[in-house]
Specification:
Layout (H helix, E strand, L loop, with lengths): L3 E5 L10 H4 L3 H7 L5 H10 L4 E5 L5 H12 L4 E6 L8 H8 L5 E6 L13 H12 L4 E3 L6 H10 L5 E3 L15 H8 L5 E5 L12 H15 L4 E3 L12 H11 L5 H13 L2
Helix pairs in contact: 7-8, 8-9
């Protein structure tokens, strides 16, 4: 079976600091507060029979974006890179022109859920930037928590053809076992034809005492809502290491997706979204 891991990161702390890592609880931060390079990823993916990956930004800078694109250019494993760009910049086209000279540039992401204003996405300058992405047929990753989902409806009212994906099933409050209003919003958002969802970043929202049965309440709802054609697998490595190993996350994904066509979930859907 082909496996495309649609969500992982790389970082080199000698090049730039990732403040969000040190802001994690100490018992989690200590596990990932070091370099994670392409050589580390190559070993893990080989061990787990992963045939390709999508590398996603973890630092809000064009410097990191270009660094990742250069790594991908020389990697057989990394099939695409999701970069960061300043969506409010009136010269956004200049940055996108640079990215689009790279064959493996495949999308943009912004760390929306860390913005001070919950409705940051509705800033007219951000909407203008997103419209530019849509016009250029560039994918957008929505990095959100449940309280942000309600604003995505308005984004699609303004930009109905934006090709988007919700990262990490929107980070529901699994530890507290809170289902609503996350579930209702997921159900309604799934009706948007050009919006997809990554089944990724879930173990990070759980505690050690919670089992897969609790997690399946959430993943089953995502799968029922989005259907087998609009969900895709992502490891969220190395952030997942705060709770589980790369191989453990992959096995959990296989368990919660057991009713799906594995080729579609682990490969075809992600390939269609990012690479076709």
């Amino acid at each position: 079976m082909n496996i495309l891991d649609t969500h992982h990161h790389l970082w080199d702390l000698s090049l730039r600091s990732y403040d969000w890592i040190t802001e994690l609880p100490e018992n989690e931060s200590i596990k990932i507060n070091r370099n994670f390079l392409i050589s580390d990823l190559d070993v893990l993916t080989d061990e787990n029979n992963v045939t390709g990956t999508i590398c996603v930004q973890a630092h809000q800078s064009e410097e990191e974006a270009l660094w990742l694109l250069e790594i991908a250019k020389n990697s057989n494993l990394i099939k695409g890179v999701v970069c960061w760009v300043d969506l409010k910049n009136t010269n956004i086209g200049y940055s996108l022109d640079k990215y689009q000279t790279y064959d493996k540039f495949c999308g943009i992401r912004h760390v929306w859920h860390d913005e001070k204003n919950e409705d940051w996405i509705l800033d007219p300058k951000v909407i203008s930037g997103l419209k530019t992405l849509s016009e250029r047929q560039i994918n957008f990753d929505f990095l959100v928590r449940p309280n942000h989902l309600k604003y995505i409806f308005e984004v699609y009212e303004k930009i109905p053809k934006l090709n988007g994906v919700i990262d990490h099933i929107a980070k529901p409050k699994i530890i507290e076992n809170i289902f609503e209003p996350w579930a209702e919003n997921i159900s309604e958002l799934s009706k948007i034809d050009s919006l997809n969802c990554k089944i990724s970043g879930m173990v990070e929202e759980m505690n050690e005492s919670q089992g897969i049965s609790i997690l399946k309440n959430y993943t089953d709802h995502v799968i029922k809502s989005f259907g087998d054609g609009k969900v895709m697998y992502g490891s969220n490595w190395p952030v997942c290491l705060t709770k589980k190993s790369y191989s453990e996350v992959l096995e959990i994904a296989k368990t919660v997706s057991s009713n799906l066509n594995p080729e579609k979930f682990f490969y075809t859907n992600g390939k269609s979204f990012y690479l076709d």
